[in-house]
UniProtKB/TrEMBL annotation:
Organism superkingdom: Bacteria
An annotated Gene Ontology molecular function: N-acetylglucosamine-6-phosphate deacetylase activity
Organism annotation: Streptomyces achromogenes
Coiled coil: none
Enzyme class: hydrolase
Entry keyword Metal-binding: yes
UniProt family annotation: Belongs to the metallo-dependent hydrolases superfamily. NagA family.
UniProt-recorded name of the protein: N-acetylglucosamine-6-phosphate deacetylase
């Protein structure tokens, strides 16, 4: 992968004159152009064509940056709905910690990122929401996802059981209000007391209600969807398995066209057959790849904290020191992309939808990000034929300068 910013200087600013990238395979909403040309002016994509470039007017050539990226892929910047940190830093930390995590994931192609919390004391979460909302207002984050504390102790995963609580709508509202309009999603065990009323509350306030860390039955999950739940938090994980007599939440979430299913494609959270099942049943339009990343993403093995709990990362897999539960991931979205194409053998266009278009649409950002189209933000990821990142652009500025060696 190209060297991330911070090890070779700072990210560049958007240029005042057009940048033209030529010769790439462009993955568009309508399909892939094998030899395309994309023009970026300022922060926006201003033109996309399969035609050869027109000769620049006399005297204009020095005002256009032309970059030949032949033999590479250009795809839209990745959109991560569910991410707890990276680069050795957590979204539960200081503003500098948050920005460190954001920069780490940007260097791996994630140009739009929602910060996820982890179960903690309510007062701590309220303070955290205030900090994260400021960074979202500045444009560093795309909002906040509250994962916990309103989840089932039976399916708590890497959350502190002592801090869990039922989803009282008044307390859910407290977190939403603390986010000052930046709350994007709340994960709930909707079968708990207050669960369905909380789903309705979230839907009324334009916040995504996600079913997750749940011990719900099939029937209870159907009720939650009818009440307004539209996302499955890391499908298959932290919920009852699919059974032939007790199909549980997995069947209900896969079968309903209103639900987008999150998948963590790191080779640990899901068997390849489970991922294939989800893609076949939900279809490529209803899958969102997420990282569920924690501090170790982009760093490596060692001891870390996830909320108040200690985590051991060994060979890239994060598990609680006490109990051994999977504790998020060390995944970055470029690795999810690479694995999906090279190991899972999914079509590139479907993978791009899962990493960009689908989560952007879910967040209500599809008019700005999630696909390569004129008028949208110039958020681009340059990949070589092995699907390694060779460049990242965000809003017209190179976060990772093109490495075409």
């Amino acid at each position: 992968m190209a060297t991330p910013p911070g090890t070779r200087g700072t990210a560049q600013s958007a240029t005042s004159h057009p940048q033209v990238l030529t010769g790439a395979k462009l993955v568009l909403p309508t399909g892939t152009i094998p030899d395309g040309r994309i023009t970026v002016t300022g922060t926006k994509i201003t033109a996309i064509t399969a035609e050869p470039p027109h000769r620049a007017p006399h005297g204009a050539a020095d005002m256009i940056d032309v970059i030949d990226v032949s033999g590479h892929w250009l795809v839209p910047g990745f959109v991560d709905l569910h991410n707890h940190g990276g680069g050795g830093a957590s979204f539960a930390g200081s503003a500098q910690d948050v920005l460190t995590a954001v920069r780490t994931h940007r260097a791996h192609g994630t140009t739009t990122l929602v910060a996820s919390t982890v179960t903690d004391d309510m007062d701590v979460l309220v303070r955290q929401a205030g900090l994260l909302s400021e960074l979202a207002e500045q444009g560093d984050l795309a909002g906040i996802h509250f994962e916990g504390p309103f989840i089932s102790p039976c399916r708590k995963g890497a959350h502190s059981e002592a801090l869990l609580r039922d989803p009282d709508p008044a307390e859910v509202r407290k977190l939403v209000d603390a986010a000052r309009g930046q709350a994007r999603m709340v994960t709930l065990a909707t079968e708990l007391p207050g669960g369905l009323d909380s789903v309705r509350l979230l839907a009324e306030h334009g916040v995504i209600a996600a079913v997750g860390h749940t011990d719900a039955t099939y029937e209870q999950t159907v009720q939650a969807i009818e009440a307004g739940a539209t996302v499955a938090t890391h499908l298959f994980n932290a919920m009852p398995p699919l059974g032939h007599r007790a199909p549980g939440p997995v069947a209900a979430l896969l079968e309903d066209e209103r639900v987008t299913v999150e998948l963590v494609n790191d080779g640990t959270h899901l068997h390849p057959a489970a991922l294939a099942l989800a893609f076949r049943h939900a279809g490529p339009g209803r899958v969102a790849f997420i990282t569920d990343a924690m501090d170790a993403a982009g760093i490596g093995d060692g001891r870390y904290l996830l909320g108040p709990l200690e985590v051991e990362v060994s060979e890239g897999v994060a598990r609680l020191v006490e109990g051994g539960s999977i504790a998020g991931s060390t995944l970055t979205q470029d690795r999810a992309f690479q694995r999906a194409v090279t190991i899972d053998r999914l079509p590139v266009e479907d993978v791009v939808a899962a990493l960009s278009a689908n989560p952007a649409r879910l967040l209500g950002l599809a008019d700005r990000v999630g696909s390569l189209e004129p008028g949208k933000d110039a958020d681009l990821v340059l990949l070589d034929d092995a699907f390694e990142v060779r460049g990242v652009m965000r809003k017209g500025a190179w976060v990772v300068a093109p490495d075409l060696a």
